Amino acid sequence: MQLGQVIGTLVATQKAPNLDGVKLLVVQPLDRHGAASGQPQVAADATGQAGPGERVMLIASREAAQTLERTFAPVDLAIVGIVDEVA
Amino acid sequence: MQLGQVIGTLVATQKAPNLDGVKLLVVQPLDRHGAASGQPQVAADATGQAGPGERVMLIASREAAQTLERTFAPVDLAIVGIVDEVA
Amino acid sequence: MQLGQVIGTLVATQKAPNLDGVKLLVVQPLDRHGAASGQPQVAADATGQAGPGERVMLIASREAAQTLERTFAPVDLAIVGIVDEVA
Amino acid sequence: MQLGQVIGTLVATQKAPNLDGVKLLVVQPLDRHGAASGQPQVAADATGQAGPGERVMLIASREAAQTLERTFAPVDLAIVGIVDEVA
Amino acid sequence: MQLGQVIGTLVATQKAPNLDGVKLLVVQPLDRHGAASGQPQVAADATGQAGPGERVMLIASREAAQTLERTFAPVDLAIVGIVDEVA
After folding, report:
1. Interface of A with D in 4-23 (CB under 8 A)
2. Measured between beta carbons, which residues in chain C are less than 8 angstroms from residue B72?
3. pLDDT in tens, A46-82
4. Do C60 and B76 touch (CB under 8 A)?
5. Measured in whole angstroms, how far is the alpha carbon of residue A16 from the centre of its chain?
6. Which residues of C touch B67 (CB under 8 A)?
7. Architecture of domain C1-12+20-64 in CATH?
C-alpha cells in the first residue's frame, strides 16, 4: 500500500454506471519524508472519513473495489486507512 | 484512477476478437497542473461521451474491461468519467 | 493499452508448459511521436497477423492471456490490434 | 517479488473493515547493492516474524492478500519471506 | 513478458506457507542491448532449468503463480522460458 495525502475532491457528472455515490478524492503520493512524489491519482474513500490534508494509506488494483460496499464499482485505487503515525 | 486528456482516436482494422465496436481513444496522462506527463495510452470509452480535448478519469487493469457492455473485451484501460472540476 | 512496434521474434526451446505454439514477438513501446520509449517487452500475438516493423496496440496483465485460444497460457502482454492510424 | 527492508510500523485507527488485526509495516525497496531505491510502501506481514531492520521478500497485488489468514483483507503488498542470504 | 538474466539464488528460511519447495532466483531485468536495467527482482523458476547467467523470459502478476505446480504459491514473478535467441 502506498502513503498519500488528500489534496482535493473531484466532480464528474458524466461517468460510468456504478460510480454513482462513490466518494472520489484526489490524492498525492508521498515519499518517506512526507514530500509529494509522482502524479496525483483519484481514489475512492473506503473509510468514509478521509478529507483534504489528511495522510492516508492507499490500496491499488482490484483489491480497491473490494473495499467498497458496491464491489463492482469501476475503481482501481482506494483509501483504506487514515494514518495516525509512522514510527 | 489517473487523470488524462483525450488527444485522438485510433483506427485498427486487424484486431483481436471482441474488440469490434469498442470505441478506442488515445489519452495523455496529466500531472497535477494539467500538463502532459508520461506516454499516451489507448483507452476504451465506458462513458460513451468522451471526445478529443476533454479531461477524463481513467481506470486501469481488469476493472477497465468490466466497465464495458461486453466484459470479455481485451481492454486494460477505460475512461470512466469526464471531469467537470477538481477542487 | 500501450502503443508499440514489433522489433523482432524470440526463440525459447526450454519453456513453461502451455507456451508451446504461442507466437512470441519482441515489441518496443512508443511515445506519442512514435519514438522508442522504455524497454522492449515480449508479447504474444493475439491477432495472428503482426510482424516486424508494424505498429501495434498492446494489452497487459491477465487480460493478455484471455485474448489467446489457450487462455491458461502464461502470458502477461499481448498484441490485440495492428494500428492503421492515430488521428 | 521485490527485495526490501523493514523501516517502521504504521498506526491507523480509522481504516477499512477487514484490516483489523493485520500487522502493517513500512518497507523500503532495495536495489541490488542493498541501497534504498524508490518510495517506501506499507506491507502486511504474512510471516508473522518480520521486524524493523530485517531484509524481506515482498509480493505485490492480489497475491498479497492471499498470503494472509483473512484473504479478503484489502492488502496489495505482503512480506512473504525474511531473507537470510542472496548468493 | 520481460527479458532478464539470472544473477543469483535466494535463501529464506522464515517464509509464508506455500513457498516451501519453490525455487527462487534473483533476476536482473535487461534492456534491448542486454544491459542491466532497473532493480533485480526475485522470481520463481517455472522451467525448472534456469540457472545463474542465463537469459530468461519473465511473467509477472497473478499469471506467475499459475505457472507453478502449486498454483496458490504467493508468487508474482516467474521464469517461463530460457531465451535461445532474439532475432
Report:
1. none
2. 66
3. 898 999 999 999 998 766 777 777 666 778 899 999 9
4. yes
5. 18
6. none
7. Beta Barrel (2.40)
Q: How far apart are CA B75 and CA B62, in angstroms?
A: 8
CATH tag, A2-41+53-82:
2.40.50.220
- pLDDT tens digits, residue range D27-58? 999 987 888 888 899 999 989 899 999 999 99
Topology of domain E2-82, CATH: OB fold (Dihydrolipoamide Acetyltransferase, E2P) (2.40.50)
Mean pLDDT in residue range C14-21: 84
C59: closest CA of chain B, how far (Å): 6
pLDDT for B25 beyond 90: yes
The yes-or-no verdict on residue D85 having pLDDT over 90 is no
pLDDT for residue A71: 63
Q: How many CB atoms lie within 10 A of CB B6?
A: 20
Q: How many CB atoms lie within 10 A of CB B34?
A: 11
Cα(A37)–Cα(A77) distance, integer angstroms: 17
DSSP string, E49-77: ---TT-EEEEEETHHHHTTSSSTTS--SE
Class of domain D2-69: mainly beta
Would you tell me which residues 28-47 of chain A have a C-beta closer than 8 angstroms to some C-beta of chain D?
A: 29-32, 37-38, 46-47
| pLDDT score recorded for residue B60 | 85
Per-residue confidence band for A86, with pLDDT thresholds at 50, 70 and 90: confident
